[in-house]
Design a protein that fits this description.
With 304 residues, the chain is an alpha/beta fold. It is 42% helix and 17% strand. The chain folds into 2 domains: 176 residues, 3-Layer(aba) Sandwich (Rossmann fold), CATH 3.40.50; 111 residues, Response regulator (Rossmann fold, 3-Layer(aba) Sandwich). The protein has 12 helices and 10 strands.
Length: 304
């Protein structure tokens, strides 16, 4: 089978899957290696719900774990060193397809292989970060979904001013190691800032302790609000971040839905159902011989 047939467009995959599954599943047991976003499903309610939706989506597409495919799941919890170690481990497993739930995990997998198909979801700017060449023709061996575009950052600022009109200073929280695209979001927020009468600046952190100290320092400054960018690190450690924000009564807007819900805020991020669409790509990758993707990346708009 030709390499370029490994992934089709999402719409075609959705319609063609039942026929493909019946024709291909009997070949052999496939293997999936998945580097999940967030925290371990055993300890994190949001991670558990996402993981259940992930497996259910595969079952709906005809892939039943233990019957026609086996899977290896890992949760790096926003730790980039752990992501690199997992990526190397996955190569030794020789999977048919790999899944990435964040930008740094996708990049870690790409540093290890340019042949094994990689499906990603919920990335910010897969082009700018080098995951794919462009959205229409990803090139190499990766494709998937991006749930955010930079223009959304201006909306986050608008919502923050609506819920906390006294805010005059806005700190934008992120870990540069897990959010290499942060400067683009920050640029959009800075451009929007004059219209809302606020000063905007980046709040770069690299650890939980740095995050807690930075939030405490910001809370001492009158009129300060917080925007938390889409970021594997801050999402994995959202309990500590939300606790610190609440302890110091710092108004905050969260890009990721799971953080907003746990902080009892208005959710602005994509729902679990929109994120899970990447699994259709995974199912097609399973049913084909390894080959580079030719289907375009999909943009899943953020929903409330």
């Amino acid at each position: 089978m030709k390499r370029r047939t490994f992934i089709t467009l999402l719409a075609g995959a959705s319609a063609a899957w039942p026929l493909v599954a019946r024709a291909q599943q009997g070949d052999r047991v496939r293997r999936l290696a998945a580097m999940m976003g967030g925290r371990n499903a055993d300890t994190d309610p949001e991670g558990r719900a996402w993981f259940a939706a992930f497996r259910k989506a595969l079952e709906d597409l005809g892939w039943v774990e233990g019957r026609n495919f086996r899977a290896d799941y890992r949760w790096p919890s926003g730790d980039v060193d752990r992501m690199e170690a997992i990526a190397k481990e996955f190569i030794d497993l020789e999977p048919d397809v790999m899944f990435a739930g964040s930008t740094p995990s996708a990049l870690a997998l790409l540093r290890q292989t340019r042949t094994i198909p990689i499906v990603f979801t919920n990335l910010s700017d897969p082009v700018g970060t080098g995951v794919v060449e462009n959205l229409a023709r990803p090139g190499a061996n990766a494709t998937g979904f991006t749930a955010y575009e930079y223009s959304l950052a201006g909306k986050w600022l608008e919502i923050l001013k609506e819920v906390a009109p006294f805010v005059t200073r806005v700190a934008v929280l992120f870990n540069p190691e897990t959010a290499p695209y942060a400067r683009y979001y920050l640029s959009v927020i800075e451009t929007s800032a004059p219209a809302f009468g606020v000063a905007v600046y980046g709040l770069s952190i690299h650890s939980i302790s740095e995050m807690e100290i930075a939030i405490e320092a910001e809370a001492r400054m009158p009129g300060t609000g917080l925007i938390v960018l889409p970021d594997a690190f801050t999402f994995a450690h959202r309990a500590e971040q939300i606790a610190a924000t609440g302890r110091h009564r710092l108004p905050a807007i969260y890009a990721l839905r799971g953080q907003a819900l746990e902080a009892a805020c208005y959710p602005t991020g994509p729902t679990r159902s929109t994120s899970i669409g990447a699994l259709r790509h995974t199912s097609i990758a399973f049913s084909k011989v390894r080959s580079p993707p030719t289907s375009r990346c999909k943009i899943r708009p953020s929903t409330s």
